[in-house]
Amino acid sequence: MRLNHHRVGHLLSPYLDGELLPKEAVAVQEHLLECAACREVYDRLRATKALLGELPVAEPPAEFWTAVRAPRGFRFPLTARLPLRWPALRRRVAWVAAAGIVLLALALAPLIKGSLDRLHAAEIGVDLFVREHALQMSTQPLTDRAFLGVVAGDSDLVLVGEPARPGETAP
Amino acid sequence: MGRLAVMAPMAQPGIIRPGQYTPEEVARFEAIVHRYARHVYNIAYRMVGNEADAKDLSQEAFLRVYRALRRVEPGAPLESWLYRIVSNLYIDLLRKRPRARMESLDVPTETPRGEVLREFPDIASSPEAILEREHLDGAIQRALGTLSEELRLVVVLSDIEGFAYEEIAAILRVPLGTVKSRLHRARQILQQRLAPYIEARKRGWEG
């Protein structure tokens, strides 16, 4: 595996960290042996990493330990105090409520629809019954006042001797 | 540390009992503090560069551990999770304090000849000063402080805390290639900033 300068430049950092595949590492190693420029770059990288690695571990101040050990002002939130029951209970209540609403809707739908139908039927029912009866039961349509009344009402005619609208005087 | 536990390994919710923490649980928390606090503080310190913020940041991180204690499986490795909390808290801190945010000095400046990185003359680079440990630490911390937070996080986790690339990728939730390229850039910038110290170090190796 031969490597060019540019490629090696990108591999030096992972090479330093031991993050290359074995064959890549060998190739970088070989290149470094014969290339002084890359060796120089590599040495700088190595020195940089070494400087950072030698930084002393920052020692936490004494009050840090007391504060960390006993988290001050910490109260269990409600959800933490009842970690199992509370969310589970809430979830269960939500499910029951949702199911209740669905059931209620299913039960009420035909009831509401039925009563609306009945109300509607009651409105037109009487009128319809009278009309049907008047039209079907008439044996002599031309002299039957009920029959003529329905026909006249439908076509907005006025029977002789009767007012056109309630309260008006007969023509 | 060869694990990739991205999430804190959670115990079954069924075994959680209501009420205050038992003495055993308090002891477990103590053990976690004992094991991780120094690392967490150190990372925070290298990130923010001052004691007060480092203290606040790591205290907040452990407060979160304390709150989540019952959801954390006893004995599970917490490194990734804990260090991700720290890095998230650090990013939150920067967001909350946009005025305190420094202009990132490692962003290349546009010039007619293309993008260039700014050069920083080190005001105290006499040979004696370079050899002083304390002075060196200060210089490194300042150099870290000039990196953008993205680069700083990666370099702190890699070169100061010694995490592998894959672990850093898991902690920061970025692809492996991103870790590599950020680390590469961060080291290039640090090299420029710390040039006199690096030369001294190299001479030390050669001599």
Describe the protein.
The complex is a heterodimer of chains A (171) and B (207). Chain A is mostly helical and 171 residues long. In chain A, 69% of the residues lie in helices and 0% in strands. Chain A is built from seven helices and no strands. The termini of chain A are far apart. About 5% of the residues of chain A have low confidence. By secondary structure, chain B is an all-alpha fold. Chain B has nine helices and two strands. Chain B has a two-stranded antiparallel ribbon with strand order 1-2. In chain B, α1 crosses α3 and α3 crosses α7. Chain B starts with 22 loop residues before the first helix and ends with a helix. In chain B, 33% of the residues are buried. At the A-B interface, α1, α3 and α4 of A face α1, α2, α5, α6 and α8 of B.
Could you give the topology of this structure?
The complex is a heterodimer of chains A (171) and B (207).
Chain A: H1 5-16, H2 22-34, H3 36-53, H4 62-69, H5 78-81, H6 85-137, H7 145-154
Chain B: H1 23-48, H2 51-67, H3 79-96, E1 109-111, E2 114-116, H4 127-131, H5 133-146, H6 149-160, H7 165-172, H8 176-193, H9 195-206
Antiparallel strand pairs in B: 1-2
Helix pairs in contact in B: 1-2, 1-3, 2-3, 3-7, 6-8, 7-8
